[in-house]
Design a protein that fits this description.
The complex is a heterodimer of chains A (428) and B (260).
Chain A (H helix, E strand, L loop, with lengths): L2 H15 L2 E9 L5 E7 L3 H7 L1 E4 L13 E6 L5 E2 L8 E11 L9 H14 L3 E14 L23 H13 L4 E6 L5 E6 L2 E2 H21 L2 E4 L13 E9 L2 E2 L11 H21 L23 E2 L5 E2 L13 E3 L8 H17 L8 E2 L6 H8 L4 H6 L1 H19 L4 H7 L4
Parallel strand pairs in A: 1-6
Antiparallel strand pairs in A: 1-2, 3-4, 4-6, 5-6, 7-9, 7-10, 7-11, 7-12, 8-9, 12-13, 12-16, 14-17, 15-16
Chain B lengths: L3 E5 L3 H14 L4 E10 L7 E5 L17 E3 L4 E7 L5 H8 L3 E6 L2 H10 L5 E3 L5 H24 L3 E4 L2 E4 L4 E4 L2 E3 L3 H12 L5 E2 H9 L8 H14 L7 E4 L3 E4 L10
Parallel strand pairs in B: 1-2, 1-5, 5-6, 6-7
Antiparallel strand pairs in B: 2-3, 3-4, 8-9, 9-10, 10-11, 12-14, 13-14
The chains are: A alpha+beta (428), B alpha/beta (260).
Chain lengths: 428, 260
C-alpha cells in the first residue's frame, strides 16, 4: 500500500471532519524566519499532488531575483490543525520543502539542508535527537519590561505581570500541537522566561522550535503584549540562549551512554570535542546576528567570546549528571546557540561538528582556549578559514548566509548610534 | 522474508543438514543455532535465546559477543525440535506467539496442544527436504504478513471507555470531543488499540507504520507515543502502557466500565 496516498486521504478527511477552511503552507527563509501563505481547503488535494507555485524572489536567501518561481511541496507528516483558531472554519498548517519550478537546484531550503544532513548521519548508523531550552522575553506593548516583573529564576510568583499565565497558555497550545513540554519557568532576568521541550529527532525539533516561536509571539500579542527571542534585548539584562541537549542513537541505544564511572562514552567525547573544535566556524549560524555577540560576554551565564582566552569548558558544553545506570538519558548540553538562530542550519552545523569530532577522533582538551568570535565580523572571517561550514550546510546555503551577513555588517556600519554620540562628543 | 532463522533443540547432525538446506533456499537470512532459551511467561511473545558459542559453523552469523542473549523479534522465525520426552520449557516455547515451525519426534506428548491449537504453526519431520522446508517457511512468512495486515483492518470502530476511534472517518473522540491526531499518531493508536494487551516492540511498530524512518529510527515510536499520550491521556485515562525494555501495549479496559 502506498503510505503517501494513505496520508493524503487522511488529511483530506480530517480537513473536512474538522471544518478546516484554510491551510497555511510554512517554510523558513535562510535566517530561520517563518514564512508562508494560505491556500483554500478546495485547493488542498491539488497542492498535495503538485505543490504550489509562488514568487520566492522577495524571500531572503531563497534565490536570486531572476530565479524566483518557487514550488512549495507540503511535507504531509507535518499536517497539524492550529489550536488557537476557532473550531469552525479552522486553520491547519503544513511545513513545505522548496524547489525551483524548473527543478534546478538553486533554491536554498534550510529545512532540506537538515534533512540531507540527517540522512548522511544515518549512513553512519546515527540518529540525532535534540531537546532545547528556549529563552525569551515577555514585554509590554511598548517592548519594555512589564512593570512589576521583578521575579527571578524559578520564581513561582503567579500574578499576571510575571507572564506566568502567558507562559501557561503557550504550553497548553504547544501540547495541543503535539509538542510536549518538559518544563517551563521564569528565568533569571525580569521578563525572561524559558520553555524546554522534550527531545525528538532533530528535524521534528527544528519544526517545533519554529512553531514555538510563533505560538509565544502570538500569545503575547493576543494579551496586548510582545515577545522577543532577540539574543540580547537589554544591556542591563541577560541574553536569551537556546541550549540544545544532544544525543545520538545507534538503533535503540543511546550512543553517548557510558559504562560505569563515566558520564560519556568515547563516541560522546568525540562528539563533544568536535563541538568545541568547530565552535568558531559554526558561530555564523548558531549566533547569526550582530546582536548575538552582545550575549557572549562575561557574567551573563552564556559562553564567553574572546579568542584565545582560557575559559572553562563547562561554559559552553555541559554533560548533565544522570543517575547511575540511566544511560538512556546521556546527553551533551551545548550552550552556544541563541534563541534567534535558524534551528535547521544550527542543528546541521552542530551535527556535522560532532560527527567530524568522532571521525577524526578528536580529544576533549584539558584547558580550553575559547575560540568563539567576538563579533559578527569575526564570525564571518572564522567561517571562511576552512571548509567546515560549507561542508556542514552545503555550499549554496553557505554562500547565501555569507552574502546576507556581510550585508548586515556593512549596513550597521552606516549607522551612528547614541552610544557613540554620548561617549565621543565629550572629548572629540 | 525473515531476518533471522533460529534452530532450537536440534542435534549437531540435524543442525548441519538444516543449515545446508536453508542456505540453499535463502541466501540472505541469518541462521543461528540455539543452546538455551528464556521465556517471559507474562508476555506472549517475549523469548530470548542463548547462542551456541562452541559451534563455529562457517554459515553461522556472528552475533555480538557482549550479550549472548538475543531477543526474538517479530521478523524472526524459529524452527524448533521438540524433544522425545516431555519438557515443560519446550511446551512453554511452543505456546508463545513467535513465528515458528515445529519438528516433532513424539506426537503423543504434544497431541493435546496440537489438536486444540489452530494457529499457524506448522510441522515438519526430520530429515526434511528442500522443497518441504521452503514451502513451510513461505507459509510462515505469509501468515506473519497476514497477521500484521489484520492488525489495522479488523474493526471499523474501536471503543474503549470514553475513547472512540472511527478508522474509516479517521476520527478520534475522547468524551465526545474531537481529538486531532496526525496520521502516524492515528495509525499507532489503531494498531495498539486493535490488539489490547498485545505487546509491540518499537521495531515492529516502526516497520508497520513507517516502513523506515531516516530521521528518527526506532525512537520515533517513543516520540509519537508520547505525543499521542499528551493528546488522549490525563489523570483518569491511561490507555497506553510502556513495557520496559520491550515496547508498548494498549491497556485492556472494557468498554463502558467507568468505575474509577
Amino acid at each position: 500500500m502506498n503510505k503517501n496516498s494513505d496520508t493524503k486521504e487522511f488529511i483530506l478527511k480530517q480537513a473536512s471532519e474538522h471544518d478546516v477552511k484554510f491551510i497555511r503552507l510554512w517554510f523558513t527563509d535562510i535566517l530561520g524566519r517563518l514564512k508562508g501563505f494560505a491556500i483554500n481547503v478546495e485547493d488542498l488535494e491539488d497542492s498535495i499532488d503538485k505543490g504550489v507555485m509562488f514568487d520566492g524572489g522577495a524571500i531572503e536567501g531563497l534565490a536570486r531575483a531572476t530565479e524566483s518561481d518557487t514550488l512549495a511541496i507540503p511535507d504531509l507528516s507535518t499536517w497539524q490543525i492550529l489550536p488557537w483558531r476557532p473550531n469552525e472554519n479552522s486553520v491547519a498548517r503544513l511545513f513545505c520543502n522548496l524547489k525551483s519550478f524548473d527543478n534546478s537546484d538553486s533554491i536554498v531550503d534550510s529545512r532540506k539542508v537538515l534533512q540531507d544532513k540527517l540522512v548522511e548521519a544515518n549512513q553512519y548508523g546515527y540518529k540525532f535527537y535534540v531537546g532545547p531550552e528556549i529563552e525569551y522575553y515577555f514585554l509590554d506593548n511598548n517592548k519594555e519590561i512589564i512593570d512589576g516583573d521583578d521575579a527571578g529564576y524559578f520564581d513561582q510568583t503567579s500574578d499576571d505581570n510575571t507572564g506566568a499565565n502567558l507562559r501557561r497558555e503557550c504550553v497548553l497550545n504547544l501540547e495541543q500541537m503535539g509538542i510536549p513540554v518538559r518544563s517551563s519557568h521564569h528565568e533569571v532576568s525580569s521578563g525572561q522566561h524559558e520553555i524546554s521541550l522534550k527531545h525528538t529527532d532533530a528535524l521534528t525539533m527544528a519544526d517545533s522550535i519554529i512553531t514555538t516561536r510563533l505560538i509565544v509571539k502570538q500569545t503575547a500579542i493576543k494579551h496586548g503584549g510582545f515577545a522577543t527571542f532577540m539574543p540580547r534585548p537589554f544591556e542591563y539584562l541577560n541574553g536569551s540562549g537556546l541550549h540544545f541537549h544532544l544525543s545520538l542513537y545507534e538503533g535503540e541505544n543511546n550512543a553517548f551512554g557510558a559504562k560505569k564511572n563515566k558520564t560519556l562514552s568515547k563516541l560522546g567525547e568525540g562528539f563533544l570535542a568536535g563541538l568545541l573544535h568547530y565552535s568558531s566556524e559554526m558561530a555564523l549560524v548558531t549566533n547569526q546576528w550582530l546582536n548575538s555577540y552582545k550575549r557572549l560576554i562575561p557574567n551573563l551565564e552564556a559562553p564567553i567570546a574572546g579568542m584565545g582566552k582560557e575559559i572553562k569548558i563547562s561554559n559552553i558544553v555541559r554533560v548533565p549528571h544522570i543517575n547511575a545506570g540511566d544511560v538512556d538519558n546521556s546527553r551533551i548540553e551545548f550552550r552556544l546557540p541563541d534563541s534567534a538562530c535558524n534551528p535547521y542550519l544550527a542543528l546541521s552545523a552542530i551535527l556535522h561538528a560532532g560527527i567530524e569530532g568522532i571521525k577524526k577522533n578528536l580529544a576533549v582538551p584539558k584547558n580550553w582556549e575559547s575560540n568563539i568570535p567576538n563579533t559578527l565580523y569575526d564570525a564571518i572571517k572564522e567561517s571562511q578559514k576552512g571548509n567546515f561550514l560549507q561542508d556542514a550546510i552545503g555550499i549554496d546555503a553557505y554562500n547565501s548566509i555569507l552574502i546576507n551577513k556581510e550585508k548586515e555588517w556593512i549596513e550597521h556600519n552606516l549607522v551612528v548610534t547614541d552610544y557613540e554620540r554620548n561617549f565621543y562628543m565629550k572629548f572629540l | 522474508m525473515f531476518d533471522r532463522i533460529f534452530l532450537v533443540g536440534f542435534n549437531i547432525r540435524s543442525e548441519d543438514r538444516l543449515i545446508k538446506i536453508l542456505d540453499e533456499i535463502f541466501h540472505s537470512s541469518r541462521i543461528i543455532c540455539i543452546k538455551d532459551f528464556v521465556i517471559d511467561t507474562k508476555l506472549p511473545n517475549k523469548v530470548a535465546y542463548q547462542i551456541n558459542k562452541e559451534q563455529n559453523h562457517p554459515l553461522l552469523s556472528h552475533e555480538e559477543d557482549k550479550d549472548s542473549m538475543i531477543n526474538v523479534d517479530i521478523e524472526d522465525l524459529s524452527i524448533i525440535n521438540l524433544p522425545y520426552t516431555y519438557s515443560k520449557e519446550y511446551f512453554n516455547l511452543i505456546e508463545t506467539s513467535i513465528s515458528k515451525i515445529l519438528s516433532i519426534e513424539n506426537f503423543s506428548i504434544y497431541e493435546s496442544y496440537l489438536s486444540n491449537n489452530n494457529n499457524s504453526d506448522q510441522i515438519i519431520s526430520i530429515p526434511t527436504n528442500n522443497n518441504d522446508l521452503a514451502m513451510r517457511i513461505q507459509i510462515a512468512n505469509k501468515n506473519l504478513k497476514l497477521s500484521i495486515k489484520n492488525i489495522s483492518q479488523s474493526e471499523k470502530i474501536i471503543q474503549y471507555k470514553n475513547l472512540k476511534i472511527d478508522t474509516e472517518k479517521y476520527l478520534v473522540t475522547l468524551e465526545d470531543k474531537k481529538i486531532d491526531l496526525t496520521f502516524k499518531e492515528l495509525e499507532l493508536l489503531k494498531v495498539l488499540a486493535s490488539n489490547p494487551g498485545r505487546v509491540f516492540s518499537r521495531e515492529n511498530l516502526l516497520k508497520n507504520i513507517w516502513d523506515y524512518d531516516y530521521y528518527g529510527g526506532t525512537r520515533t515510536v517513543d516520540v509519537h507515543v508520547r505525543r499521542l499520550r499528551t493528546k488522549i491521556e490525563d489523570h483518569k485515562n491511561n490507555f497506553i502502557e510502556t513495557i520496559w525494555n520491550v515496547g508498548y501495549k494498549f491497556n485492556e479496559i472494557k468498554s463502558g466500565n467507568t468505575n474509577e
